[in-house]
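Dear colleague,

Thank you for sharing your sequence with our group. We've completed the structure prediction you requested, and as agreed, I am returning the results in plain text so they can be pasted directly into your records. Please verify that the sequence below matches your submission; if there's any discrepancy, let me know and we will rerun it promptly.
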Amino acid sequence: MARNAHPELTQERIIETATELFTSQGYDKTSMQDIINATGGLSKGAVYHHFRSKEDLFDAVADRLMNTMSEETSKTNAGSKQGTALEQLQSLFSPERARKRLKAADLMFRKFNPKANPKMIGMEFTALVDERNDFIDLIKEGNQDGSMHVDHIEETAEIFRLLANMWLLPFFRRGTQAELRTRAACFFSIMQGLGIPLEDQGFSDLLASFGTDAQGKVVI
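Please find the predicted structure tokens below.
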């Protein structure tokens, strides 16, 4: 039997297929046989050679989705280390920077069904709370340089992470263009109330461009 000269390509093919099925029809309603059938030619043995179970494959899919989002955020943060802490945080919501993250999320979650994927939602929730330290440091810096006035630093960092990465994004919960504008306005109001005076400098217009029309069709 000939050996697979590029096992990493086969593994990527399996993950891409599983991502498509998990996000569209849900983890529980997707079987390993469904994934094998959708790979378009891979044998059962080839799939199980790379992933021993559906649980292992799901973990690989979830890691890939979260790592991709983290990479986009890291790329965004890389060029935002100048100015006050508030200015650094504000830069995350500039249309130029936010557009790349939103487009990356849209490609991954376009067919995402939150109600069919409670496990993935739970993993994302846990990861966001666990990875709050960078924002804790930034908020502390903001309190020191006077650009922020946050009383409950750790809790505010968690709220920021959860709202900005799950509630605000129109992929875990879709909305019309008008609804997304309102969601953005509410987010900025909450942040200001917590002592982080972020301003809407065009972000709501960008977010609305990923919304649906009155008939529920995605506009972008």
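Summary note from our side: The longest helix spans residues 54-78.

Kind regards,
the structure core
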